[in-house]
Amino acid sequence: MKKLNKQRLKRTLFGIYGNDGLVFKIVLYLLLIGISFIFLYPLLRMLASSFMNLEDLIDPTSIWIPKHFNLQNYVKSWYTLNAIPRLWDSLIVTLSPTICIIVSSSLIGYGFAKFTFPFKRILMGILVGMFLVPTILLAIPTYVIFREIHLLNSLKAFNVPALLGFGLRQTIFILIFYQFFRQIPNELIEAAEVDGANTVRIFLTIAIPLSLPAFLICFLYSFVWYWNETSLATMYFGEKYTTLPMAVENFRATYELLYPSGSVGLGAAHNIFNQGVLFAGIIISIIPLLIIYFVAQKWFIEGVDRSGIAGM
Length: 312
Fold this sequence. Notes:
By secondary structure, the protein is mostly helical. The chain is 71% helix and 0% strand.
């Protein structure tokens, strides 16, 4: 009887296969909670501080809940960022190369997955090797080339490389499409060819519908990476386009021009630059990304799961 009870206890704690017992589940949930806390804590702290005035920020007892709920931080940040024009610039600079990347990456990935041609493995090796080269390492040579062929100060600086397979971190997108298209049975393509479908029709009517999660995940990642790219955008566009993240980088200087704190009798104390105003500006700049993610969360997770590629 005691032996039977020990076996039941052991099975309850450790399970049959070792990964289905109570101990494993507790460790797993603790690990997930810890990782979630690491990622969410800065965002939640920033959100709480964005509603605090200067008194709350220097008050050690005001950590999460502001004693003086303050929306003026968002009002000042909105005008400091010049949010509507900056949002429009961000969408233009982000959506245009993202669409180019999806088109070219899907075509390249389909070619590698479903066609046989000379030096295919060598080209795949070069493709993977390109992923290991830091983007910033090629920034100066790329700038010189773009200046010579007159691509600077226009969207061509982002769009042309994206169409040619050299967009921002585009290697990972090609590999994602390659992984998805490989999962399409060759028998399905052969049946379509027997019915008279050519390569273009097969790609449009079979490959794309079966790989929609790949298109979504590539769209989301490319959108986020182009949205947050400030170094290359500043280098290539100059003053032609100013995105929200670029405006955040210059936030303090712009804020102090709009709200000088040196004047007396003009609410100078309330105009002092502080973390609350800065955090409000950062929250405004990431709201579009959060909206897109929450809307497409279901398909995004499915795409990550099916792609078989982690750590992006």
